[in-house]
Amino acid sequence: MAEILKGKPVADAMNEELAPRIDACKAAGVTPTLAIIRVGERDDDLSYERGATKRCETLGLGLKKFVLAADCTQDELMAAINEVNTDPNIHGCLMFRPLPKHLDEVAACAALDPAKDSDGITQGSLYGVFANQPVGFPPCTADACMQVLKHYGYDLTGANVTVLGRSLVIGKPVSMMLQAANATVTMCHTRTKELAAKCAAADILVVAVGRAKTVGADAVREGQVVIDVGINWDEEAQKLCGDVDFDAAEPIVGAITPVPGGVGSVTTAILAKHVVEAAERTLA
Q: What is the CA radius of gyration of the chain?
């Protein structure tokens, strides 16, 4: 039976580590504060917002919400972003995406100050990830993968890691972060030839393709660590599932993250960490 790498212990440990840092900020007269920019009422946005709100309340972080109508104008959105950028009491920002199709998402992302970009959506933040420099912040989900591996004690130095997925949200940034931690990384995608064999060859497999149960028993091996980032709806079973066929992979691999309850449950803790780090940078 595989070790189940649950996200709650990771998030709890992060909360414990962040508490004294938040107290130190407040003692210096700064309350780390998150801004949330949400356009419309998408169910997934609202769900994540509830989680982020609860995390802020638990840790004593400040929170300011900018809620815009689904049919808001580009000017209204840019005004909200400008307010975030210019308010010295806001240290981090989460802007939900995708935005409605009538809005210019590229321009909106470009307008956000990378110093306040808590979820790695700006070019400045992505530069920071790719150059391994303290500019902006990596996407929360990519950082959550790294935090799970760190919490459970996996040494990445020299490890062979396969990343299945190439998005700018997870696949590409987590590949860069793994390399910065001295792993040897192979990037794959759904059109990779001999995909199952390449996945099975890895010591650690990170799966982020957004397709339910893409990885089955033929793509994993004994002793392997599997980080499943996917969150999909299984129509047949009427429940959430990952990009990995958990029932097929779990009896084979050495360790695996569950869905739900794995990487996804760490992301709001990462968001809080980024806000605290942004506040600390203003005090440096």
A: 19
Sign of CA dihedral 93, 230, 181, 12: positive
- Calculate the CA 178 to chain-centre distance: 14
As a whole number of angstroms, the distance between CA 161 and CA 207 comes to 11
Closest by CA position to 277, among listed 71, 168, 128: 128
DSSP secondary structure string, 93-126?
A: EEE-SSPPTTS-HHHHHHHS-GGGBTTS-SHHHH
Instruction: Return the percentage of the chain with pLDDT > 70, whole number.
Output: 100
What are the tens digits of pLDDT across the range 64-77? Answer: 999 999 999 999 99
Q: Any idea what the CATH number is for the domain that residue 101 is in?
A: 3.40.50.10860
Could you tell me if 144 and 81 lie in one domain?
no
Question: What domain range is 50 assigned to?
Answer: 30-114
Structure confidence by residue, pLDDT tens digits, 105-135: 999 999 999 999 999 999 999 999 999 999 9
- Cβ atoms of 156 and 181 within 8 Å: the answer is yes
What confidence tens digit (pLDDT) does each residue in 219-241 have? Answer: 999 999 999 999 998 888 789 99
Question: Does 58 lie in the same domain as 110?
Answer: yes
- Give the total number of structural domains in the chain: 2
Do 168 and 53 share a structural domain?
no
129 within some domain: no
